[in-house]
Design a protein that fits this description.
Helix content: 40-55%
CATH class: Alpha Beta
Structural class: alpha/beta
Distance between the termini: 9 Å
Largest sheet: 5 strands, parallel
Strand order of the largest sheet: 2-1-3-4-5
Strand content: 15-25%
CATH architecture: 3-Layer(aba) Sandwich
Number of domains: 1
Order of helices and strands: EHEHEHEHEH
Radius of gyration: 13 Å
Number of helices: 5
Number of strands: 5
């Protein structure tokens, strides 16, 4: 399974990447929109873990690009804010499959990736 992580905090992104790699997943970690766009140009991902509050670029632009280029790619949005807590992200992003807090235990995030990644294949 191929996973793209777009996360501005390298420590948090690295933590998620290590947990996913331990489960045998191929993981690409980028810090923002430019890196995500380049990764999506180069290959298809089964799941994207995408922080809504990126320091560089727009998470919704990344989600839109993924939806256009790879419509079966699922997006797990993460955040440390209450923004979109009303569920409106699911109306804005057709490939959104989950919305969780950044402090979600990494093993729980891995389980979600495994679940939604299988559905995308």
């Amino acid at each position: 399974m191929k996973v793209l992580i777009a996360e501005s905090d390298p420590a948090l992104g690295g933590l998620w990447r290590r947990h996913l790699q331990r489960r045998g997943m191929d993981v690409c970690l980028v810090a923002g929109q430019d890196g995500a766009a380049s990764a999506l140009d180069a290959q298809r991902f089964d799941v994207i873990i995408l922080n809504i509050c990126l320091e560089e670029g727009s998470a919704l632009a990344i989600s839109d690009l993924a939806s256009y280029r790879h419509p079966d790619t699922r997006v797990i949005f993460v955040t440390n804010t209450s923004f979109f807590s009303d569920g409106s992200i699911f109306g804005l992003s057709p490939n959104a499959c989950a919305y969780v807090q950044t402090d979600t235990p990494p093993d729980d995030l891995v389980a979600m990736v495994e679940h939604y990644g299988r559905a995308a294949v």
